[in-house]
Amino acid sequence: CLATLVIMLVGDTYTLINYVSFINYLCYGVTIIGLIVLRWRKPKIFRPIKVNLLIPITYLAFWAFLLIFSLYSEPIVCGVGLVIILTGVPVFFLGVYWRNKPKCVNRLIESITCWGQKLCFVVYPQGGVAEEQ
């Protein structure tokens, strides 16, 4: 949310579109790389749709060209896009990777989640303290 607020302060729609498109292209490419790695490491798992590997490899070639061209033509916008992505790393480590959190941290996370659900009118069924109250 803080990164979004900072981006909104920029005010230039063209720059905002460039931030988002760079982040999207980067995520799409990483997804395709993951698809190729899974096809290579686990060829026997069930896949509802299976395509020839030439299609994702061709996509990656075009993706690399577009990403390199973006980095060359607008390095600052791409750098800001990378910084925006990297703001999620501490959230991952605090929320997912850190398993043995103190109870006060878990209570804080639960209260923030409950507050966000009330703010956005979202109800997600889950067991625990919220249902008992």
Features:
single chain, 133 residues, mainly alpha, 7 helices, extended
- The end-to-end distance, rounded to whole angstroms, is 29 Å
Portion of residues in beta strands equals: under 5%
Structural class: mainly alpha
Judging from the principal axes of the Cα atoms, what is the shape?
A: extended
Q: Give the mean pLDDT.
A: 82
Main sheet: strands, sense, barrel? none
Strand segment count: 0
GO molecular function: L-amino acid transmembrane transporter activity; neutral L-amino acid transmembrane transporter activity
Keywords: Membrane, Transmembrane, Transmembrane helix
InterPro entries: AminoAcid_Transporter
Protein name: AAA1 protein
Summarize the topology:
Elements: H1 2-10, H2 13-41, H3 54-73, H4 75-86, H5 88-97, H6 103-120, H7 129-132
Helix pairs in contact: 2-3, 2-4, 3-4
Organism: Eubucco bourcierii (red-headed barbet)
Keywords: Membrane, Transmembrane, Transmembrane helix
Transmembrane segments: 16-39, 51-73, 79-98
Question: What would you say this structure looks like, in words?
Answer:
- With 133 residues, this protein is mainly α.
- The protein has one domain.
- It is 77% helix and 0% strand.
- The longest helix is centred in the first third of the chain and has 29 residues.
- The model has no long low-confidence stretch (mean pLDDT 82).
Describe, in short, the structure shown.
By secondary structure, the protein is mainly alpha-helical. The chain has helices at residues 2-10, 13-41, 54-73, 75-86, 88-97, 103-120, 129-132.
